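can u do me a favor
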């Protein structure tokens, strides 16, 4: 009753002031509390996600590094020196052991140069061990007497061995090892040859540390397998007892990756884990203290309390004109929203206040930042998709002529035509060198013409009397201009394979290159059987998968992806009267950056 009487006794202005203060107090308190829980939840979720992304990224980097080493060792078996050594292993010929040891030194040096993580390589064979001469081999430890050999006979596939002391070389360092068996030329014959690659434990530790996110304070790593054995050393893991390890490992069997909280050395910790593909059952774990991980949430709590206190104090002094002051920033925010509706995403809300409207404005800013990020992600995704599609189209160029070329080389070699064999091999090597072009998508026009000439030289050796050709380069053509690689050779190949498929001799190809206005015009014309242009265009629109006309469809698609509307392909033909393909490209002077 006293409070009621006191309230009735106040003036109307005081009652309005008191009511506004009370409402503001309740509103600000409720808004601050809700904002805190929302922000805390978002921050906690983002912290978990960032920690999980960090461990997944690190696992991918380690996985990729180990996979590269495996692929490198498989490519070693394709070297001529290795194949010659395998021939002697198959025949148990030990007379050329030192010759093979010498020849393999260059191969070992190349792999050690291109991959610094490879510490040492050992090739164990029944006729002797092969290894880099820069490494000192321990002769008292044979691979065939080791546990690795017993495991290799069981695994029958490449596998990695967790940290152990190097038993084959004098440095005796802690390493992890890749063991893989090789396959010879004779099927179903066990050559009993193994390649052992040692990677220093410290290098793997450095690789993991180099990929640690600097925004993740207190993040520690453990690298183990499902049996609890360490792949590389971890002081944190070594400090735990066996009972803890047993219960801890049970939590890692549920999925390929994930996270959970677990008490570690008396502290509640966030455990993120990701399985590696290369190691089979290897698991990379990231350990972070929950208290340090959620330190930002505590900061938000303090910031929220400070904001609430400030707003409550402000409400005691601000009552008159409160509606006007509140509506003014709302009008400002409304104007910003109208600008956003007109696709202006660069606007941002700014306010000197820290009230509810300011909080909404800050969230509005975050929303705009997120929209811009999503738009950028979509743009980047489309760019990456385009790059992948371009690479796939380039890689799909039909290499069947390579088989015919190799067969022809073999036949001419059997017939003793060594000059032809040498010319074809050199042309083929030069052609592939120009075609690969160090992974670049753009080459000079001169290199593109040379690539085509090498192909024609090879085809002349394969089909002595089938065709001849004439190359005409206009005076205004700049051979240093850059063009999309592998354009002319598929057109010439299409003329030989499809245009001359029904004749034995008399074929003629005219290749013309000239400048026309701001365009570079490439033309390939033959006197073959011709083609049905409408059918070719229809197959190109329907993305035909048959070999007929595939080169034209591939080139047209690549032109569209690289040049867009600036380039086009024109076809001219009548059945039985030959065909002509004309490419019109924009002139590009100088170098072009790779995509």
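np, heres the sequence
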């Amino acid at each position: 009753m006293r409070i009621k009487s006191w309230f009735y006794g106040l003036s109307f202005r005081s009652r309005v002031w008191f009511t506004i203060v009370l409402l503001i107090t309740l509103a600000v308190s409720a808004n601050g509390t809700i904002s805190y829980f929302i922000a805390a939840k978002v921050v906690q979720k983002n912290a978990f996600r960032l920690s999980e992304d960090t461990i997944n990224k690190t696992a991918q980097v380690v996985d990729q590094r180990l996979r590269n080493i495996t692929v490198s060792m498989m490519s070693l078996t394709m070297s001529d020196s290795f194949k010659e050594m395998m021939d002697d292993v198959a025949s148990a010929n030990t007379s050329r052991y030192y010759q093979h040891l010498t020849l393999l030194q260059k191969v070992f040096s190349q792999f050690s140069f291109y991959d610094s993580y490879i510490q040492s390589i050992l090739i164990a064979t029944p006729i002797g061990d092969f290894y880099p001469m820069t490494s000192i081999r321990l002769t008292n430890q044979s691979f065939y007497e080791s546990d690795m050999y017993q495991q290799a006979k069981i695994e029958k596939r490449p596998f990695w061995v967790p940290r152990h002391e190097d038993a084959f070389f004098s440095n005796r360092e802690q390493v992890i090892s890749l063991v893989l068996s090789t396959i010879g030329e004779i099927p179903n014959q066990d050559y009993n040859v193994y390649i052992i690659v040692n990677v220093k434990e410290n290098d793997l530790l450095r690789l993991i540390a180099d990929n640690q996110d600097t925004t993740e304070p207190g993040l520690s790593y453990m690298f183990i397998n499902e049996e609890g054995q360490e792949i590389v050393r971890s002081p944190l893991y070594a400090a735990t007892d066996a009972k803890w390890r047993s219960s801890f490992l049970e939590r890692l069997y549920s999925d390929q990756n994930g996270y959970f909280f677990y008490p570690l050395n008396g502290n509640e910790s966030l455990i993120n884990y990701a399985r590696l593909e290369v190691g089979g059952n290897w698991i990379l774990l990231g350990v972070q203290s929950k208290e340090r991980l959620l330190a930002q949430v505590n900061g938000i709590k303090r910031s929220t309390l400070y904001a609430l206190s400030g707003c409550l104090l402000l409400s005691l002094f601000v009552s008159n004109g409160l509606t006007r002051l509140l509506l003014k920033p709302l009008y400002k925010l409304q104007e910003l929203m109208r600008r956003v509706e007109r696709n202006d995403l660069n606007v941002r809300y700014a306010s000197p206040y820290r009230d509810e409207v300011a909080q909404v404005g800050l969230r509005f800013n975050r929303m705009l930042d997120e929209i811009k990020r999503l738009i950028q992600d979509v743009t980047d995704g489309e760019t990456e998709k385009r790059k992948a599609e371009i690479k796939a189209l380039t890689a799909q160029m039909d290499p069947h002529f390579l088989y015919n070329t190799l067969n022809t080389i073999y036949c001419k070699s059997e017939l003793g035509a060594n000059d032809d064999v040498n010319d074809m091999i050199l042309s083929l090597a030069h052609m592939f060198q120009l075609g690969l072009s160090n992974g670049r998508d753009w080459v000079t026009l001169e290199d593109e013409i040379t690539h085509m000439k090498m192909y024609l030289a090879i085809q002349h050796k394969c089909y002595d009397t089938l065709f001849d050709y004439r190359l005409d380069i206009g005076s205004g053509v700049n051979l240093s201009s850059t063009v999309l690689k592998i354009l002319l050779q598929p057109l010439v190949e299409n003329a030989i394979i499809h245009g001359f498929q029904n004749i034995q001799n008399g074929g003629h190809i005219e290749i013309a290159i000239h400048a026309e206005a701001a365009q570079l015009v490439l033309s390939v014309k033959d006197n073959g059987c011709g083609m049905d242009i409408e059918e070719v265009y229809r197959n190109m629109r329907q993305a035909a998968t048959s070999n007929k006309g595939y080169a034209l469809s591939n080139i047209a698609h690549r032109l569209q992806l690289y040049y867009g509307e600036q380039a086009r392909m024109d076809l001219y033909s009548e059945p039985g009267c030959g065909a002509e393909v004309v490419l019109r490209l924009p002139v590009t002077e100088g170098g072009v950056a790779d995509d």
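Confidence is low (pLDDT under 50) at residues 591-595. hope that helps!!
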